[in-house]
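README: folding subset

This subset contains proteins for which both the sequence and a predicted structure token string are available. Records are stored as plain text. Below is the entry for Major facilitator superfamily (MFS) profile domain-containing protein (152 residues), shown exactly as it appears on disk.
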Amino acid sequence: LVVTFFSLFIAIYAAFVGSASYPVATEIVSTRLRSWTVGAAVSLSYLLAWVTSFCSPFFINPENMNWGAKYGYIWAASNFVTSIFVFFFLPELKGRTLEEIDELFERGIPAWKFKTTKTTIMDEALKEVQTKDSHVEKAKSPDQVVEETRLE
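--- output ---
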């Protein structure tokens, strides 16, 4: 029974959480902190995996704790805590650029409001480009500069 539920847990983890953790870890952090954050997350993941694999035999071994299938309560509690964390602290990033994500974090927007909050960084960038374009139009064209140079 324990092996069955452990296998089921590993299959579900690998299909959903495990495959989503790396993309989320790389998209949700600031660009300048990305390499450090991903390295720290992977290191912590390996450490926790080692602790789990080291402690698991003691929990289910009849000579030690003899929990047997009760060992699943640890996983149920950890999954409950993780689901609460995901709901309250993991923002929706679909359709957002890295710059928009940085802006939302800088403004201190709660994770559950990321989806509905309007960002201004793209509007500001568009205005900046339009301002530069209008200054370029007012300047002399390259042909005019070449003609003036020939005349001198």
